[in-house]
Amino acid sequence: MPTYFVYILTNPAKTVLYTGITNDLERRLIEHFRARGNRRSFAGRYYCYHLLHFEEFSTSSDAIAREKEIKDWNRSKKENLINSQNSEWHFLNSVIMAWPPPPEVESNY
User: How far is it, in rounded angstroms, from Cα 105 to Cα 93?
Assistant: First the structure.
């Protein structure tokens, strides 16, 4: 059964929040990491590749609805969501995969 993820990333200083959706969270984290500094994307421009929060869904429609809901929230409400499960704002990338990705893995994406 397919799995979909809604996730929230931040930059190293934790000043920017980015909400996204994917069906492969590991791949997407690597893509965000590789895009750091790329001014053509929001996440890249602001170095958002540190995972703070993620939720898993069995259907794309549920995940899309949740992503839209979170994107409509103000920062305070997003912070409350993050705090409800990650009050110290630990970067969760290493929960999903070996982090940072080694160059040979990073280049495959």
Answer: 15
**Gap between the Cα atoms of 9 and 62, Å rounded:** 20
Scanning the structure block, which residue is given the tokens 């103000």? 74
Please state, in angstroms and rounded to a whole number, the distance separating the CA atoms of residues 20 and 75: 15
Alpha-carbon Rg for the chain in angstroms: 13
Q: Which residues contact 6 (CB under 8 A, 6 or more apart)?
A: 19, 20, 21, 54, 55, 57, 63, 66, 67, 70
Question: Is the Cβ–Cβ distance between 9 and 49 less than 8 Å?
Answer: yes
Q: Is this model's pTM higher than 0.85 or not? A: yes
For 65-84, the pLDDT digits (tens) are 999 999 999 999 999 999 99
Torsion of the alpha carbons at 54, 58, 62 and 63, rounded to the nearest 10: 30
Distance CA 9, CA 15 (A): 10
The 8-class DSSP code of residue 101 comes to P
